[in-house]
Specification:
The protein has about 170 residues and is an alpha+beta fold. About 40% of the residues lie in helices and about 25% in strands. The chain starts with a helix and ends with a strand.
């Protein structure tokens, strides 16, 4: 009886611990995600700037173009925000050298290129937020603004800015 209970506890621990201890890189692989190469800035700026333990990322957007509410559906906007999330993960990897250094996501600004009457911007930016929580767990939860704008550079569907806190070295 004692050995059966002990074996059951070991099995539960074996099943639970690997999931709980997964790194963001392992989670990305498990989810079957492909992190892209970092795109080059389109103007005179840098992709990130670190100040103390805070890492500020410049706005990133997908290679998905058009206005949500006219050219794109909410679902297509969600996919654009998720694609932007993958670009942001690539920038975070380059900036930190190890995604495990991310202590927490602090603030996100999501801008949706949309028609004046479109009001589901939060549903679009959820594509980004859902991805960050899937990859980083509780550390991926963040304060957020999701706003509609009349246009974005090159007519991209969304642009997202991020601030993360890094672990002490």
């Amino acid at each position: 009886m004692k050995s059966t209970i002990f074996f059951s506890i070991l099995l539960i621990v074996a099943l639970v611990l690997p999931t709980a201890a997964q790194t963001p890189a392992e989670k990305i692989q498990q989810l079957g995600l492909q992190v892209p190469e970092i795109s080059q800035p389109i103007a005179n700026y840098v992709k990130w700037k670190q100040v103390g333990n805070l890492l500020y990322l410049a706005g990133s957007g997908p290679k998905i173009y058009g206005k949500v509410g006219a050219d794109l559906s909410t679902e297509e906007g969600y996919a654009a925000a998720k694609a932007t999330g993958l670009e942001i993960i690539a920038v975070l990897q380059a900036a930190t050298g190890d995604l495990g250094r991310i202590k927490q996501f602090v603030k996100v600004l999501g801008m949706v290129n949309c028609t004046p009457d479109y009001t589901a911007q939060p549903a679009v930016i959820n594509g980004f937020s859902d991805l960050m929580v899937a990859v980083f767990g509780e550390k991926g939860k963040h304060a957020r603004s999701a706003v509609g704008v009349g246009s974005l550079p090159n007519n991209m569907a969304v642009e997202i800015e991020v601030i993360v806190e890094l672990e002490d070295k």
